[in-house]
Amino acid sequence: MRSELRQVRTGGVPSVVDLTEECAAFVRGEGDGLLQVFVPHATAGIAIIETGAGSDDDLLAQLDVLLPTDGRWRHRHGSPGHGRDHVLPAFVPPHATVPVLEGRMALGTWQRVCFVDTNGDNPTRHVRFSFLPG
Fold first, then answer.
1. Least C-beta-crowded within 10 Å: which of 29, 36, 61, 122?
2. pLDDT tens for each residue of 78-134
3. Who's near 52: CB < 8 A, 6+ residues apart?
4. Measured between alpha carbons, how far is 31 from 10 in angstroms, rounded to an integer?
């Protein structure tokens, strides 16, 4: 298995960061197998969604509705409402697996691999790409 840890800059604001091109470059030249994308953080996740047509903004807006930044959270360290960030991975899991065929991700036409982070306390995050040959 080949694995690399990459840095992701979110700027400390809720973000959906498209990692698709980085993922494609990571598996280019490989044969068949699986790409595992994993976030080693308790407050971020990986989503496979369409981007660029508003879905990324819709996701962040809906997460604000579902997980509001207010005082309801028992987990209270960090900025106000930060407890919601620790619940995020239950809704946007910290991992995704993508089939790779002949060195290319087998994504659908509009699917993109995205890093989702609502945690404004950390402007720099990490993601691990791992390729498991078939």
1. 29
2. 888 889 999 999 999 999 999 999 999 999 999 999 999 999 899 999 999 999 999
3. none
4. 32
Q: pLDDT tens digits for 9-44? A: 998 899 999 999 999 999 999 999 999 999 999 999
Please tell me the distance from the alpha carbon of residue 8 to that of residue 19, in angstroms, as a whole number. Answer: 9
Those residues whose C-beta lies under 8 Å from the C-beta of residue 12, and which sit 6 or more positions away, are 120, 121, 122, 123
**Measured between alpha carbons, how far is residue 96 from residues 8, 91, 116 in Å?**
16, 13, 12
User: Residue 115: what residue type?
Assistant: F
How far is residue 114 from each of residues 20, 23, 24, 37, 81, measured CA to CA in Å?
A: 7, 10, 13, 10, 23
